[in-house]
Write a structure and sequence with these properties.
- The complex is a heterodimer of chains A (218) and B (302).
- Chain A is an all-alpha fold and 218 residues long.
- Chain A is built from nine helices and two strands.
- Helix content of chain A is 74%, strand content 2%.
- In chain A, helix 3 runs parallel beside helix 7 and helix 5 packs antiparallel against helix 7.
- Chain B has two domains: 213 residues, P-loop containing nucleotide triphosphate hydrolases (Rossmann fold), CATH 3.40.50.300; 85 residues, 2-Layer Sandwich (Alpha-Beta Plaits).
- Chain B has ten helices and 14 strands.
- The chains are: A mainly alpha (218), B alpha/beta (302).
- The interface between A and B is medium-sized, with 20 and 26 residues.
């Protein structure tokens, strides 16, 4: 059963997977362009680190993008048919959802492995000055985790009903409106920033997207 | 198991549409025609029966098991053709068959291959590129090849051309006759069901108007031409569905009655009227008359 679900998932997402494979492989290589200085000054070493850090935001963006697009593609065919086919199959709903999640999750391995290969290749091609190191495997693990988190979140949203998505949107919109009203009334409470900070810092669910992502560090 | 489907006190509501206290019995081995005009609630009832929607109240027993509690187990023994194409359009026919087969332990590959040939479907065609008729045939193929004990067909021939319709009906009848399966088939094409069904249920506005063996339905509903009947009639031995003037060129009145039997002619003599003619109604005419009566009663109650 899993095999056929994986096959259908592959058919729907293969273009997306191919594009994400290319992007994930190329990104680490592109982000270290211009870092290969054999004997840099302290100032140059610092600027390499700063540049590496500023470019690293693209790793998180790519991880989130791949997770989002793959999660959306998982349910697209079922959404088109109002889920009638899935609901008519002799399998418990929770099991079908788990199988779909697992099939999509397995396909995430393709861009993750490509990213790892790209990071290894980029690291090997660099001649870093003394004191700087490349962390391709650690970065690839972080990329994998971020991709899975993004995939899981968007999978949950995508597998819900339109009504559920509407409720989520209404809650988020309501919080923004309340914050704007508080701000307009000169009340010094910024709960949105506090919520955002908690979500993206450890142990928040999106903590993996924040912090250091650089391939090169000290 | 005497009945393939038993429904008691089924209630469901969505927006302004309501299914109210629905009771339905489909005898095992029967071909049950589930009739009703568009919007009567046939598809909703089927979706409730299959566990695709959750009822507010009521009990549903399908193939001896409780729905929706045992849905995953019962759906293995049940073939379903929905009203609208539901298959994944990006797959080829062969991939669609392989996908479907993986969920059904009793999948009959040989039968699938036979039906593929019989329906002139090509394995490498994309499902999304099939014509309406080909898609309809593929859905019936999938339902039949999984070797079901119960076939639930929601308007399976709606929109198909007569040739495809005949092919589909023939394949269904072949299967039913060789496997003693039960068929629950919904349609608003009354004349089509008249040929194949042995039970009939009529639904309108979320309620079951009538349910009876087809023979009784066909025999029991008559159009009578009557002259000399008094304006008010009481204690009729049959159910008087409608009573109208015979119109231009006709004499007397036309009565449509249910539960008619020949000895009831005496009734007209006793009230001083003359029964001129008794005409059999076909299923479609009977269906229309029943609906008309039901809607008349319904509006009076409202």
């Amino acid at each position: 059963m899993f095999k056929v679900i994986l096959h259908t998932q592959w058919k729907w997402s293969r273009l997306l997977i191919a594009a994400s494979l290319v992007a994930a492989f190329a990104l680490p290589i592109l982000t270290v362009q211009g870092f290969g200085i054999a004997d840099p000054t302290v100032w140059e070493a610092r600027s390499i680190l700063r540049a590496a850090e500023s470019r690293s935001v693209w790793y998180a963006v790519l991880a989130a993008g791949i997770g989002l697009l793959l999660a959306t593609s998982v349910w697209s065919a079922d959404h088109r048919g109002d889920h009638v086919y899935a609901l008519s199959l002799p399998v418990a709903r929770w099991r079908f959802v788990v199988l779909r999640f697992a099939a999509g999750g397995l396909l995430l391995l393709v861009p993750v492995v490509a990213f790892w290969a790209g990071a290894l290749l980029a690291s090997a091609a660099l001649s870093l000055p003394y004191g700087l190191h490349a962390y391709p495997t650690a970065l690839a693990l972080r990329f994998a985790l971020a991709t899975v988190v993004a995939y899981a979140v968007f999978f949950a949203i995508s597998s819900g009903t339109t009504r559920a998505a509407g409720v989520v949107l209404a809650i988020v919109g309501g919080l923004v409106v309340v914050q704007v009203l508080l701000h307009g009334a000169d009340v010094d409470i910024d709960f949105l920033q506090d919520l955002f900070g908690r979500a993206v810092s450890w142990p928040g669910p999106f903590g993996v997207f924040a912090g250091r992502w650089a391939l090169i560090g000290v | 198991m005497n009945n393939a489907i038993e429904v008691v006190g089924l209630c469901y509501r969505v927006k302004s549409f309501e299914i109210h206290d629905l009771a339905l019995t489909v005898p095992a081995g029967s071909v049950y025609g589930f009739l009703g005009p568009n919007g009567a609630g046939k598809t909703t009832t089927i979706q409730l029966l299959l566990g695709q929607r959750r009822a507010a109240r009521g009990q549903m027993t399908v193939l001896g098991g409780s729905m929706p509690r045992d849905a995953a187990r019962l759906l293995q023994r049940l073939g379903y053709v929905p009203e609208r194409p539901h298959l994944y359009p990006g797959l080829t026919v062969t991939e669609g068959l392989r996908y479907h087969a993986a969920f059904y332990p009793r999948w009959d590959s040989q039968r699938a291959a036979e039906l593929l040939h019989r329906f002139s479907l090509e394995g490498d065609q994309r499902i999304g590129g099939l014509s309406k008729g080909e898609t309809g045939k593929l859905m019936v193929l999938l339902a039949l090849a999984q070797h079901p004990e119960l076939l639930v067909l929601d308007e399976p021939t709606d929109g198909l051309d007569p040739v495809v319709r005949r092919d589909v009906i023939a394949a269904l009848l072949d299967y039913v006759s060789s496997h003693s399966a039960t068929v629950f088939i919904s349609s608003h094409l009354v004349h089509e069901l008249e040929r194949i069904c042995d039970w009939v249920g009529l639904m309108d506005r979320g309620r079951l108007v009538a349910e009876m063996p087809m023979q009784r339905f066909k025999n029991g509903i008559k159009r009578l031409r009557v002259t000399g009947a008094p304006a008010a009639v009481e204690d009729t031995p049959f159910v008087l569905l409608s009573r109208e003037s015979a119109g231009v060129g006709g004499a007397g009145e036309v009565w449509v009655v249910r539960g008619w039997q020949s000895p009831m002619q005496e009734y007209f003599t006793t009230m001083g009227a003359i029964l001129r003619e008794v005409v059999d109604l076909d299923l479609e005419e009977g269906f229309v008359e029943l609906l008309r009566t039901f809607r008349g009663l319904d509006s009076r109650e409202a």
